[in-house]
Backbone:
């Protein structure tokens, strides 16, 4: 009995921890409040909700290159860059998945302004500092040029260099591609900064950046050699600006770009557009250039109203289903049913806590997988209790019936759960193919539920049942109908 009491204390402590993690909207250690009155946390966890629950934006991107022009590693690195960009937008619940051998699916829950997100995701953002020595007086801002870095990328991808040379401008002095001094890969930090005044008296947004140590020296040496000459700042082949180098730059500088208004644009609209442009460029530079250029295949905006309409019936159905199961187990199995009900509550809380800690993004299919796992948890208890009833009918005493019931039911529970976990693994792999991502959430929550069930259906149920039997032994030995016999 003492061993079961110790297990009971552990299970109760685990249950309290799961309640602390699972039930609050935000779980963490709060350290205070910021200037806006918002709580600050040493660490925090929140439940990730999918597009079908909170609404948002779903974007399908496709490589603009033929499949033989890049490797799967290039696609993974591109997906990582896209992930860093959407995370920099403050979308901590965003998901980025590779689909097939040339597509990337991006889901942005809670985002309903697609334009900025698509621009931030799709643009390659290859930043270059290009040598424009001898080109002082040439007005090349806004022109598309061909650089040595772009030439290198074209060669790596096996693309037609001659056609690229026809579309982009070469150095008019040499007839060759412009020389790239440093690329954005050497950036250490980049941030959008607002300057209230410029030399012409107008405010502006610009990008302030610093270079990594191994690149900063090369950049400083170049600017020292080229003092008095122009240097082009180029983004994806387009010349943003051609500032004159006034002296040696030690790896920290700024990028400016056009501040003019568009036709029919109000001053406020201009200010907002320039701010978005600066912030988007800064996060693109911090996230790194995309190895593979991408195009948008589809962009679907899912409204939050649809999300609420989806989640409310799901919650009601889940609560009703759990209540019916708890009632059935109590009515049919009596005292063992009480142990099963307590174990099922622990199972539900443990699942919710695991979903939040991993975190698992909850979608309607994921919730369906979780509800099915509740059914499998009940199945395990039914196998155990039916085996116990058989042992009691065979003439074994209560202790023997409990021991043999758990031992002989374990193999059936283990084998059935493992076989279903294998099916979940197959479903998860199938969910990585284009158009089938919805299956992954179902497979993940069902598999997690099955794994947790191996713990709760045996250890937790056993502990609760042995404790109840210890308390009610005399009544149970006289009235075996309390055991469902």
Residues:
């Amino acid at each position: 009995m003492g061993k079961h009491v110790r297990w009971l204390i552990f299970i109760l402590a685990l249950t309290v921890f799961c309640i602390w993690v699972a039930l609050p909207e935000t779980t963490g250690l709060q350290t205070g409040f910021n200037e806006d009155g918002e709580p600050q946390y040493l660490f925090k966890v929140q439940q990730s909700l999918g597009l079908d629950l909170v609404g948002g934006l779903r974007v399908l991107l496709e490589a603009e290159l033929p499949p033989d022009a890049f490797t799967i590693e290039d696609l993974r690195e591109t997906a990582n860059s896209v992930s860093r960009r959407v995370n920099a937008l403050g979308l901590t619940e965003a998901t980025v998945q590779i689909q097939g051998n040339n597509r990337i699916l991006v889901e942005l829950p809670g985002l309903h302004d697609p334009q900025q997100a698509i621009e931030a995701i799709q643009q390659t953002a290859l930043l270059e500092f290009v040598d424009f020595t001898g080109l002082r007086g040439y007005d090349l801002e806004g022109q598309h040029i061909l650089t040595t870095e772009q030439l290198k990328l074209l060669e790596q991808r096996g693309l037609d260099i001659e056609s690229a040379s026809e579309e982009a401008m070469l150095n008019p002095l040499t007839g060759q591609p412009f020389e790239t001094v440093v690329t954005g890969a050497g950036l250490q930090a980049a941030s959008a900064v607002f300057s209230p005044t410029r030399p012409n008296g107008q405010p502006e947004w610009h990008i302030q950046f610093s270079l990594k140590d191994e690149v900063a020296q090369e950049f400083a040496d170049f600017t020292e050699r080229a003092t008095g000459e122009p240097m082009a700042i180029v983004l994806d082949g387009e010349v943003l600006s051609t500032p004159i180098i006034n002296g040696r730059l030690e790896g920290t500088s700024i990028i400016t770009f056009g501040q003019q208004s568009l036709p029919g644009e109000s001053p406020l609209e201009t200010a907002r557009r320039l701010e978005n442009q600066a912030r988007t460029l800064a996060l693109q530079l911090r996230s790194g250039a995309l190895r593979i250029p991408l195009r948008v295949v589809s962009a679907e905006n899912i409204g939050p109203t649809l999300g609420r309409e989806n989640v409310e019936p799901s919650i009601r159905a889940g609560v009703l289903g759990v209540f019916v199961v708890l009632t059935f187990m109590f009515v049919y199995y009596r005292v063992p049913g009480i142990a099963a009900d307590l174990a099922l509550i622990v199972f539900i809380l443990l699942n919710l806590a695991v979903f939040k800690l991993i975190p698992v993004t909850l979608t309607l299919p994921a919730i369906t997988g979780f509800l099915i796992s509740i059914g499998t948890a009940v199945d395990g208890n039914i196998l155990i209790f039916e085996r116990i009833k058989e042992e009691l009918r065979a003439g074994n005493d209560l202790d023997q019936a409990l021991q043999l019931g758990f031992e002989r039911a374990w193999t059936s529970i283990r084998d059935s759960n493992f076989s279903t976990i294998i099916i979940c693994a197959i479903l998860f792999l199938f969910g990585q193919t284009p158009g089938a991502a919805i299956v992954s959430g179902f497979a993940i929550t069902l598999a997690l539920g099955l794994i947790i069930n191996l713990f709760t259906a045996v250890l937790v149920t056993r502990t609760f049942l042995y404790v109840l039997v210890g308390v009610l032994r005399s009544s149970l030995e006289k009235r075996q109908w309390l055991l469902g016999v």
Observations:
- Residues 43 and 285 are 27 Å apart (CA to CA).
- The first helix runs from residue 2 to 22.
- The domain at 44-121 is CATH 3.30.70.3400 (Alpha-Beta Plaits).
